[in-house]
Amino acid sequence: MSEIERRFLDTLLFWATQKGRIKDGRLRGHGMQVGETVSGPREDLSSAEVKKGYEFLLSLVPGRWPLPNLCSPLFQKFIDYILQNVKDLFINKKELDKFVLLKNEFLVLEGSLKYLKTFLDFIKDSGMELEKSRMLFNHVEVVTRNAAYICYLCFVEEVDDNLASSLRPTQLVTLLIHPPEDLCVDQEKLSDILNCAEGLIAKVASAAYSFSVEKAEEVNPAILINGLFPGPRINCTSNNNIVVNVFNHLDEPLRFTWNGIQQRKNSWQDGTPGTMCTIMPGTNFTYRFQVKDQIGSFFYFPTTDLHHAAGGFGPINIHSRNLIPIPFARPAPSDEYDVFVGDWYNKGYKSLKKILDEGRTFGRPDGIHINGKSLKVGDKDAQPLFTMEAGKTYRYRFCNAGLRTSVNVRFQGHPMKLVEIEGSHTVQNVYEFLDLHVGQCASVLVTADQEAKDYYLVASSRFLKNEKFSTVAIIRYANGKGPASSDLPAPPPENTQGIAWSMNQFRSYRWNLTASAARPNPQGSYHYGKINITRTLKIVNTRSQVDGKLRFSLNGISHANAETPFKLAEYFGVGEKVFKYDLMSDEPSNTDKVTVVPNIKNATFRNFVEIIFENHEKTIQSYHLDGYAFFAVAVEPGTWNPEKRKNYNLVDAISRHTVQVYPNSWTAVMTTLDNSGMWNLRSDMWERYYLGQQLYISVLSPARSLRDAYNIPDTNPLCGIVKGMPMPKPYTA
């Protein structure tokens, strides 16, 4: 590392009131190893050195921010004030211990916030009024922004050997020059700014996670994260930066995707076989991404082989910022509960993989689970899943993380008010039953307004021939008396009548046009129905035999992954050695002839596309699109033709990322391809996904600019034919 880079890092770290040092090629923002004692402040740091470093910082960001004049008497006093109080700013060992969450987890220090408080104390001691000094206000606003980003970039220590290449001064400069939107803008009172800074630091601190992934051999085996099934919750707010350090303790490669997170400009972190190499056994990898302009209920899961069948999934809950109202009844829900439902196979994921590799289907499941457990009515040893207090309202976030089975959920004696589906606030209809198809998530409000005792939450399979599976979980009232009744709410109809029932429920979901989501403007201000369609993809799924083995395909192409992820091959300019674009036509021609080959569609950046999913089979389908949300504008029986557009909902269709297609029916969705990257469009029925029912959409910005797409992170591993190749010329602003 050059001297100028050292000076830059040192300067940034000083302005957050901590000692910065590069040791053995690793960033040590607080100047010590975890467990060491604090050696104290830098006594040799003079005012002249501070000025020199600060001048260098100004030279890097000319004209961007209205920073104080170095020669002003005010700034001279400020430097002296910091030097006199630097001992109060340093974090001692006892304070440090509070921030060490787990071994090998992230360490987040509060130096930036302490610096800001010191600056505000200086203003107060000087008898100045922040509101009347625009220069001071501007500086505090800048410091507030820096507090979040310096904390995130410099004071998050990753206790492993990968950090050396994960942060570069150029990355720091880029993020400092381009701060996040909507942070502390137009705050005019000192207390408001301080509260905003505290909130930012708290959010950054809560956005660092460590996943230790291992098997519980006694259960089939199940895959656990930090010993949990389901895995730990990622709890965050719109526009937060999320950092997840994944330690792979399995004996196989591993990779995670973040289902529903759009990864704006950043398909490098999407975690699919077409975008990322795997995390090898005994190693770790740190995912870094932003939940840009999103709210709602999502989940993560592994995308390697059949690991998904053994667990490894967990919730991602994105909350609206404090300034944006939530369209729920006041007071807000007393608590939030994450509920994962899905099918379960006792064979184990390795046996399931072997079945698929042999060209067979793994058939019906062995049961349905709720958060990894399958209970029967009257089980005396059953513990409550959740507890509610009488008179209070709770938010339940449901996700179907199963492999192939739709699930219906219902509460005994308690209706559900639907409030959100996959990142969209909905019209708040009330339901007794709710169908969740594979890969889908939804939030409901449940009010504890019944007799104080136990009640059952019921989950049952949908649309399985000849056999039904169900399970229950106990919802307990605090201080309640009496067990749950054995009289369970009956499930909705099945077979043809059940398909019609489920289809009508789908049509009843409506976008809440007046509610705000991640931004202050109402959802309905985006008039998707007035945008001209520039391209239509009509996709028909088929099931067939290739060389005596089962394969699933889209428009006659059964997708096959490659040793080199497609995004890497494309980025390094060797895509033609790995795949060919557009082997699948925009409309099906001869779907009887199936070709097994990488299925990559080329798309035009910012086109508004219509995708028609047509299902000629007798089983329900579920499709997911990475990188985007789409408007699910229609679902109907039969086959699609252009005349069907007259029946589209062009006003308040739900914007979501996963949609079902009923047997012998079609579903239409619309989206704008405004997110540059390589994005997976896949069946969420995992045997279909594994055996070819998927494709990738390559969306490249013609500008080749950082405005539209990020460069590959330095920490991303390389594999396949690009391993060892020189790095391509990076995108620039």
TrEMBL record:
Keywords of this entry = Glycoprotein
Concerning SUPFAM superfamilies, the annotation shows: Cupredoxins
Q: Keyword Glycoprotein: yes or no?
A: yes
- Which is an annotated Pfam family here? Cu-oxidase
Q: Its domain of life?
A: Eukaryota
Q: Which part of the chain is the Plastocyanin-like domain?
A: 217-322, 337-479, 564-702
* Gene Ontology molecular function: any one: oxidoreductase activity
The record's similarity note reads: Belongs to the multicopper oxidase family.
User: What name does the UniProt record give this protein?
Assistant: L-ascorbate oxidase-like protein
Instruction: Give the originating organism.
Output: Capsicum baccatum (Peruvian pepper)
